[in-house]
Structure formats: C-alpha cells, structure tokens
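hey can u check if this looks right to u? its 346 residues, i copy pasted from the old doc so theres a chance i mangled smth
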Amino acid sequence: MGATAGRELYRRMTSRRVAMIAMLAAMAVVLFVVNCTFFMRWSPLEALQTIFDPGSVSRSLDSVVWSYRIPESCFAVLVGVALGMAGAEMQTVLNNPLAEPYTLGISMAAAFGAALVIGFGFGTSFLGGYAMIVGAFLMSMVACGAIYAVSRRRGSSRTTIILTGVAMLFLFQALVNAVQSLGGKEVSNSITFWMFGNLARYPDEMGYVLVLLIVVVLVAALFAMNMWKLSALKLGDAKVYSMGVDASRLRRNTIIGISVVTAVAVSFTGTIGFVGLVGPHVARMLVGDDQRFLLPMSALCGAVFLCASSVLIKGLDLSLPVGVVTSLIGVPFFLYLVLTRRRSLA
C-alpha cells in the first residue's frame, strides 16, 4: 500500500510539473505573438494577417512586422532561453543560488570586444557590419578560455572558478573604461548604449536568429544529455564520484556550454542582466531541482521574462533598452534573494 501511494504521489507531482511547463510554453507563445502584432498603428488582426499572408494588408506593415517585430521577438525568445538555462546550470555546477552567466565576466568581455570595434574600428575594414559581433564573441571566448584553463588545474574548486570569473569581470570592466576614456564622449556614449542590451539591434537579419537558434539547440542538447548527472551534483562531489561520474569534468564541460551560449547571445544583443538569475529561481520555485523539469522550465521562464519586458516597453511607449527594464525588475529580486539567503544562513 505504501509503495502504491508513493507511486501515485510521484505521478501526480510529475503531472503537475509537466502542466506547469506546458503553461509557461503557452505563455511564451502568447507573448511572442503580442510582441509581433500589438502596439502599432495597425490593428493586431492586420499584423497577424500579415504574418500568415505577407502583402495582404500593406507593404509598410510587411516591413514593420517582418523586418523588425519578428526578428526582435525571435531574439527575445532565444536569448531568454539561452540565459535562463545557462543560469540554471551555473547555479547547479557552482552550487551558488546567486550565480548567473555574467558571474564569469563573459558579458563584460563581450562589451570590451564591441568597445574595441566602436572605439578604434578594429576589423571593420574586412568584416564590415559583422565586426562588432565577431569582436564581442571573440573576447567572450577569451574569458571562457581563461576560466576553462583555471578549472582544469588540479585542486581547483567551485570557489576558485567563481573568483576567476569575478577577476575577469573587473579586468574587462577596467578595459572598457579605458577605451571609453581614450575614445572621447561620442565613443563612450556608443559603448554605453551597446552595453544596455537591445533586442532590435539587427533588423531584417533572420540569419543571425538562425545562428543563435543552432547554438541554443546544441548547448541544450549537451545539458539534456547530462541531466541526471547534473541533478546528482546536489548530493556533493564525493557522492557523485561514488556513482562513477567525474564531477570535475562534468563541471568543466557544463561551464564551456554556459560560456558559449552566453557569448553568442550577448554578441548579438549586448548585455541583458538578471534574466539568468530570475528565470532559474522562479523555475525552481515551480518545479524543484530535478533537471528534467528545471532545465526546460528555466529556459521558458527566461523567454517569458524577456518577452514580457519587451512587451512592457512597447505597451508603455518607453524609450528604454530592454536591458534597463530587466535590471529594474531584477535588482529588487536579487536583493530579496540576498536577504532571504542571509536569514537562512544565520
């Protein structure tokens, strides 16, 4: 009787978690459609008609929807998914509830790469408009390489990896400030605007969306292949090793995946903070720590958070980059986590 009751309880719990994931997926789809079709001088029905039948309403509406709204909405979903799942796995492998992708300094490294292009024009002679994206990505991978090298050292711990990331953060912050000082006021303003984060930076460029989609799918597959191993990390390294899992190698490979997907996302949109912190925590409140549910829920929470922020900007007619809005929402949430964490440790 006890075993039967236990199985029934597990079945109900699983069904509830699957239902929560399905609900968040539906919410993400609704927000995607709203972001594409609402808050224009045309009606939402006309915009929706244009999506399914281009040219049926007007060329102007076609241009707005297909060149701006759809790419922007795709970036909102994919960047939200990327940062959400990266944040969840970073909190898992570092065993730190306040960790997020930017903890490792990857976003600031990307900002430095973009700053070099904005301030000195590096790479523009042969890369043209792609120079900023390539520069941001390459510098992100430099930070990733430094962190990976430290993680491979014998005796390195989670604390060592976190401290290395913090060092990278301050190093690249100083380098960005140096470029701003040397470049003058106009360059400084351009770099600051890039760092705010903007989903509509590359209109009419669905090719960029495809690149981000491929990277997100590949990294998500990497995480999915190691779901039970990542869940086991909660038991501690000694327990994981006793189960035949190399915890250090798992942690290194996961950090590489986090670094790559974060670097690509940041290269296209600039720095968008707190999505990787808020999304996983909301997901954990809804479905717990089981990676089978936490990973997809974190990805969906990130997508919903970023799409909702984009919709809020349009609905309130705010002339703000989306990174500012996510930070305004995320900072109070971060302080709440810090305070509750402190009480739990007291």
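Residues 36 and 69 are 5 Å apart (CA to CA).
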